[in-house]
From TrEMBL:
InterPro entries assigned: DgoD-like (IPR034593), Enolase-like_C_sf (IPR036849), Enolase-like_N (IPR029017), Enolase_C-like (IPR029065), Mandelate_racemase_C (IPR013342), Mandelate_racemase_N_dom (IPR013341)
Record-annotated Mandelate racemase/muconate lactonizing enzyme C-terminal domain positions: 151-245
Highest classification ranks of the organism: Bacteria, Bacillati, Actinomycetota, Actinomycetes, Micrococcales
Organism: Georgenia faecalis
Record pathway: Carbohydrate acid metabolism; D-glucarate degradation; 2,5-dioxopentanoate from D-glucarate: step 1/2
Listed name of the protein: glucarate dehydratase
Class of enzymatic activity (EC top level): lyase
Domain of life where this protein originates: Bacteria
Stored Gene3D superfamilies: Enolase-like C-terminal domain, Enolase-like, N-terminal domain
EC number(s) stated in the UniProt entry for this protein: 4.2.1.40
Catalytic activity: D-glucarate = 5-dehydro-4-deoxy-D-glucarate + H2O
Amino acid sequence: MRIAEVRATTVTVPLEAPLRHSNGAHWGRFVRTLVELETEDGLVGVGEMGGGGQSAEAAVLSLKDYLLGHDPARTEALRFMLANPTASLYNNRTQLLAALEFACLDLLGKHTGLPVHALLGGAVRSEVEFASYLFFRYPAADGSGEVRTPDQLVAHAWDLKAAHGFRVHKVKGGVFDPGYEREAYRAVAEALDGDRFRYDPNGVLSPEQSIEFAAGIEDLANDYLEDPCLGLPGLRRVRERTRIPLATNTVVVDFAQLATNVLAPAVDVVLLDTTFWGGIRPCVKAAGVCETFGLGVAVHSSGELGVQLATMLHLGAVVPNLTFAADAHYHHLRDDVIVGGKMPYRDGKIAVPDGPGLGVELDRDKVAEYAELYRELGPYPYDRDPGRPGWYPMVPNTDFADPSRAGRPEALAHEPF
């Protein structure tokens, strides 16, 4: 089995409302690049990656000469072929490698008739639990969906729990002053008493602010405090001064960083992202290291359509020490590009696909529809806030958004969602 063709298609898929985060926003839609690898005998494997609101088509297709003739079963060779550790100091292809590894594993599964989880050691669970992902949001184009106040955040959490059965809730912070966000976080935890909670300001607080924030929520049913500040030394200081477990998806994303955290613990939970780690297989390896040293693991979301969600489900299926609910942006999507549409949540969980490979197929009509929409709308700057022209965050940040400013920014006037 050899790769004979490489294709990449950028799509943009609408969200229920623009999602705000510490560095900017998703401007009402996701931009994702779908990757297809076709073998000489006509099998097609699919992958997916993001790109901060930008297309990654050119980057994927630039690797075509590396990939043609390659055996997709040789995923370990693929790692060094595309993302050699020294060469990656210059070309940083980790996310490209991940999307191509997804497609290779999908091909291998289709070739053998086995689901990817069977190729990775076999499933230990048939469904994966997810947390709700609560964002502060700008209103959609029709005026709906704004989340700016504690009351709106609580109502949004209740809506998601009623629709999908979530028992764990994650608040994405770093948008407003940490005192205001602590009030909103406490409001959610008190309203949904009996559930569990986690808070993630994407590293924009100082260690001192992080310690203060942690002290103000220690009495709640917290899973963990995720990336309150940036960097292992700062996280280590925070960890020494709180009883809440700390988690990261930003500063433990490779094995050297994982080793550093084992030798001098700064976080208790490693959030494994199939994109940031360069594929599903590295995440499985990292989970094994975490199991050995008693570190918790969870499945992280970097924003996904159904293809990447499938990679997250297969990862969650095979990791024995997965004791936390996974993250997903998925419930914010209005649609998907896979056959059958969006995968359903039941009691806060999604069933692991059991068909060959990743167990999902591209809906060609949907791909064509959302590829055309991308050509019409183009990219958006993920790392800019449409409501704050010229603004960008410092780290630690001191210039937070004003929660009294309601409504949809002028910069979103030409965005349809």
